[in-house]
Design a protein that fits this description.
The chain is 38% helix and 17% strand. The chain is an alpha/beta fold. The strands form three sheets. A nine-stranded mixed β-sheet has the order 7-8-6-5-4-3-2-1-9, with helices on both faces. A three-stranded antiparallel β-sheet has the order 10-11-12, with no helix packed on it. It has a two-stranded antiparallel sheet with strand order 13-14. The protein is globular and about 55 Å long.
Length: 414
């Protein structure tokens, strides 16, 4: 069960945006997120807005999905033009899910072509799709590359069979080196996504997963702590006592091991859960979220943010398709982000980046607390004083601070 949509104001049926979205638009980047809500199997820990064929029933065809998404892309082009926004070719496009590669590569390319036709595409655009290791072939990856994709992010999660079984992942971990090689042969940059803290995963299991990922030579790795979300199958298993909740100390030890091994291999953290070999290997689309740029989210349940206005689409693919077929915006609600909320979000997101958060963004009370965080070993002293090669005084997390990032945010935002 995916989370409920936020509460907000009613969204206009035509999707029209208020005039204020034009303010400062030329200074903000613009990206596009394309949500593909389909999976062959729903994993027990997943609370994303995804569906298997049996869950969908009739009226929400995977075969017709690309055409439905193209209808929203066309709507987006009309809405942004009518709002008087300056032309901004997207610098990033990210296709997520679900498992986007359950659709034919030709459908994903058609959706990208729709983005290109609606808004254009920057010459150096980063175009990423998520994929499961068992949902691609050398031929499908080559077709994506020919169609304009530049990057693929594989949901590896683990290299250990019993850990994958607990997560209900279906791929064979021995396939990982093959899919990485196929993607690179096609000319695609590759990221591997890992999860740590799965019930029953030992520190040695986690080290095996990290070493297996690094052995492929990838230039980007994401490592996320498992969170047992309410409403998921795994939450029921924990409640029944069939699985143990992830232990915070165990997850901290696994984060530190990841940071050690990835750093030794030449990858450097640029966001709390992400490591890249060089700045050019970082995921530019996710950086745009953390830096509060604009983006249009296409698909059921997708969220968008343009000029301080945030909105979210209806969740179910059938309702989403019905809205667009009727010529209406699929938005279920929206809100205008107030100054206080915008500053809180800037702190929450900016603190997570290696580049740090400018101290002047903080409220006077937040600025006064930086010294205490330095004393506690959570914030880098040199960065806080304006040293270390970065302009201005910045809040930059130490490794201990990364482990306690939520606590740092609460301290700075109160």
């Amino acid at each position: 069960m995916s989370p409920a949509l936020p509460e907000g104001d009613a969204a206009p049926a035509d999707g029209a945006l208020p005039p204020g979205v034009r303010d400062g638009a030329g200074d903000r980047g613009f990206g596009v997120y394309l949500h593909v809500p389909f999976c062959t199997v729903r994993c027990g820990y997943c609370d994303f807005n995804t569906y298997t064929a049996t869950e969908l029933g009739g009226g929400a065809s995977q075969v017709a999905y690309a055409d439905t998404a193209l209808a929203e892309i066309a709507l987006g082009a009309r809405v942004t033009a009518a709002a008087g926004l300056p032309p901004r070719p997207p610098s990033t496009v990210f296709v997520g899910g679900g498992t986007p590669t359950v659709l034919p590569a030709s459908d994903l390319v058609r959706m990208l072509d729709g983005v290109r036709g609606a808004w254009g595409l920057a010459d150096d655009a980063e175009v990423t799709t998520e994929a499961n290791p068992d949902s691609v072939t050398p031929e499908s990856l080559a077709e994506l590359a020919r169609g304009g994709f530049t990057r693929v992010s594989f949901g590896m999660q683990s290299a250990v069979p019993h850990v994958l079984a607990t997560l209900e992942r279906t791929h064979d971990p021995r396939r990982i080196p093959d899919v990485v090689r196929w993607a690179r042969d096609a000319g695609l940059a590759v990221s591997l996504d890992l999860i740590y803290g799965t019930p029953g995963e030992s520190l040695a299991d986690w080290q095996t997963s990290l070493e297996t990922a690094l052995a492929t030579g990838v230039d980007h790795v994401s490592a996320y702590a498992l969170v047992v979300e309410q409403g998921t199958k795994m939450a029921v298993q924990v409640r029944r006592g069939d699985l143990a909740l992830p232990d915070e100390d165990d997850q901290a030890a696994k984060y530190e091991l990841a940071d050690d091994l990835l750093t030794e291999a030449g990858l450097h953290w640029y966001e709390v859960s992400n490591w890249a070999r060089t700045p050019a290997d970082a995921c530019r689309h996710n950086l745009a979220y953390w830096r509060n740029d604009d983006w249009w989210g296409v698909g059921p349940g997708a969220h968008s943010h343009v000029g301080g206005v945030r909105w979210w689409n209806v969740k179910h693919p059938r309702a989403y398709a019905a809205k667009l077929a009727a010529g209406e915006s699929p938005a279920a609600g929206r809100e205008t982000v107030e100054d206080a909320s915008a500053r809180l979000e800037r702190v929450m997101l900016g603190v997570r980046l290696d580049e740090g958060l400018p101290v002047e963004v903080l409220s006077p009370a937040g600025r006064a607390r930086v010294a205490g965080l330095v004393a506690d070993g959570l914030v880098d002293a040199r960065a806080a004083l304006g040293a270390g090669g970065r302009p201005g005084r910045r809040v930059r997390l130490t490794r201990r601070g990364r482990l306690l990032a939520d606590s740092v945010v609460r301290t700075l935002a109160d």
